[in-house]
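Data card: per-record layout.
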Amino acid sequence: MHNKIEMIQKTAFNYFEKFTNLDEDSAGYGLTVDHSNNLQKASIAATGFTLSSYIVGDKYKYITNAEARKRVLLTLKTLYYNVDHFEGFFSHYVDIKNGKRFGSCEYSTIDTALALNGILACVSYFNDKEISEYGNKIFKRVNWRNFFHKRNDKLVLHMAYNDNENGDYAEGKAGYIHHWGMFAEQLMMYLFVAGNSDYNEKEAHDLYQGFEKNVGRYKNHEFIFSPGNTLFIYQYPLAWLDVKEFFDQDGINWFINSKNATLAQYEWCQENTEKYPTYKNGLYGLTASDTIKGYSVFHALPNDKDLVVTDGTVAPNAIIGSLSITNDIALKGIDELFKIKGLWNEEFGFVDAFNITIKQTWISNRFITIDKGLELLMANAYLSQDVQKAYMNNDIIGEGMRRLKWKKQSGGKRL
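The structure for this 415-residue chain is written out next.
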């Protein structure tokens, strides 16, 4: 099985090699496509995964150390000088050739945070003066305070900003968009604020305490859930964060929380194989992925509407993304994925998703980059934790955990 996981890691690395702008004469050097069927549109979150891939590439000798360092530095210069941003927050999508904002997309906190994850991991891992200089410039430029927002007398972050009333997510009104008033995939943002000396401990603490932590259960699995309860929100932060032993002041362990959420989804899927044949043989995962009708976000129980939303599609990244969280079911699921004809691509690994029905078997014809990035990092977390170790060794992450009072302990109060 170890060999299969390394194949997943290597083919994912190959994907980033193929779909990243590596033209050194280009203003968009280092930027990576959002998905494989549109080679002009780059994603800033995808670029964060690309930066992380260079740690894997160096560690496993997929590329030389000199080449990895060069790529990281040139990518950071692209992000600092060429990519459009608002108060340090990058536009969600950019033109892969020049870094300019793609259409009227939003300036996104979560996509910027995923880029920062890759940046901080590289700063720590490569320990290079210039890489550190540009990485820290990009990090310090992000003005989190400008996105602070009081909601029900609690401090939260806005999700995004769009100066175009007709732009993405703007809903006819220019300005700040929605807020992180609930638990979702934004966990790393609180560490960024707490670990940044520009912010005091009280506001960092208030921000972390400001989002709702609603506890629910499915069968015997209790956890803090997001309004939609889609699987990727539990996986993305843990692709970089290794918090198995850390509990916050309220006794919350975010690793255990993710484990319980994953096991709940697995149990529901195995109970519904008759209606959704794709879930047979231990496959699972209600997440966001390509589907026969295009990109969709699925919702598991519990959620705020008490309603399951799925068409039975399974995304390999949902299962691979469970590595290092729930290894038993993930390894079993991965073994089954390799048996499905047409799902594995010899160069780039598993395609984005598939769905088996009575009438047909649908298999996606594309790769979505952040999904492939999750596969890369969770495969690496299972094999050797190179990216996680680098990220956790970054002083900003360490200071953020200290100031938020996340401490190692043998047991917690609740989760």
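Known properties of this structure: The mean pLDDT is 97. The CA atoms of residues 40 and 96 lie 5 Å apart.

See the next section for split statistics.
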